[in-house]
Amino acid sequence: MITWLYLFVAIAAEVIATSTLNATQSFTRLWPSLVVVCGYGTAIFFLTLTLKTLPVGIAYAVWSGVGVAMVAVIGWFFLNQKLDLAAILGICLIVAGVLIIHLFSRQAP
Asked: Where residue 109 falls among pLDDT bands split at 50, 70, 90?
């Protein structure tokens, strides 16, 4: 169970960092830049903790899949970025893939 908590923290940190990237204005603004650097550092640290238990393929698939979906939703709601039907369908398929891994894979504890 702690493995999934570590993975959730890694995902959350990566999503925060990625969502803040535009605010750095090419790393010319200090505070958003620090959020990005700390976010990615935290994400990698907690991903390494996850890899003590989960295989890298499973951990990375869940990390990237959930991260992509969350960043797209944050972009839609908070950054005024539009999603068309194809993008929404693709995100739903990514989430479905993560659920299949989590619920049915023997590699996921």
From this structure: low
State both tokens at 104: 């049915």
Distance CA 109, CA 88 (A): 29
Parent domain of 35: 2-104
When divided into structural domains, the chain yields a total of: 1
Nearest to 59 by CA among 70, 45, 48, 73: 48
DSSP line for 77-98 = HHS-----HHHHHHHHHHHHHH
Residue 91 is assigned to a structural domain of this protein: yes
Q: What is the pLDDT of residues 61-71, one digit of tens each?
A: 899 999 999 99
